[in-house]
Write a structure and sequence with these properties.
seven-stranded mixed β-sheet, six-stranded mixed β-sheet, 18 strands, 22% strand, disordered C terminus
Amino acid sequence: MPATQQQEDLVVARPEGLYCPPGDFYIDPWRPVARAVITHAHSDHARTGHAYYLAHTDSAGTLRTRLGADIDLQTLAYGEAVSHHGVRVSLHPAGHVLGSAQVRLEHGGRVWVASGDYKTEPDGTCTPFEPVPCDTFITESTFGLPIYRWPTQAALFAEIDAWWRANAEAGRASVLFCYAFGKAQRILHGVDASIGPIVVHGAVEPLNAVYRAAGVALPPTLRVTDAGVDAALLKRALVLAPPSAQGTPWMRRFGNYADAFASGWMQLRGTRRRRGVDRGFVMSDHADWPGLQQAIAGTGAQRVFVTHGSVQVMVRWLTENGLDAQGFKTEYGDEDDQATPDGAADSPHTSLPPAGEGANA
């Protein structure tokens, strides 16, 4: 890119992260900076050490839980704007997890939008994605390959409910591995809680509390240490646990259980076998291939930067469709990262560090 063009850009890549030169702030930086705008609270986008944070109101609980109650945090509602050094900054729904936001920047007659991570199908646990008109759009491409096409919410939860119901009738626990922030709450909100009791790992319950405080309807949940949680109850239970719990002593209390994994990577042939589980459910909090195409088209942007995931594939597709597209090298992963088979040739993340939610669940 010519130096004159880069000087005019509202966002450029620096060693610390994505930087807004006229505003003198960063978006989801991976190294400590003075001012950080945070798209959402997954650990690859919201890191410790920044002097000041700006995020959506619904991210406050999770950010303080994960980064510390005393962080210097300012919050905005969706559509609310602030100005810093002449740059108008506003946050808009990304549909990824609770509080997830796209960052709209306006300066000198130009509008850029940094999307963070996003999902285009509403799931009932966060404000649905909204396309934001702009000149330049910064998009993820975590699942930026044509193979990735998600089932509908209704179809997904019909499968999960049928699996849980069959296990409960057979007298065995249904252990569903999922990430503690976002996936677990989406599952809780979507399953048929009349099938049986729901037990959650200790890493999940604090985040459930954040969602409940934000007004998201979740069914009652138990911990294995709660009174009344005995072998008979566990035989009918749906158990939600982070992937890090797999193979640990914590699992022994469930006896002869059935297990499954909820991840977008379950679309890949062989991933379920590599994870060593009985069942895989195709479930992601990121946009699939049609969703990425729909989101990018909805912005009307003629220039697109692609961050993490299948960057080269997405850039090529955008270029072939008449857009000015190129990649931004970042240190973002995603909360599905650790579901990918190590070193698998079909993984779009083999060059990225395991900095996503899966590494910290």
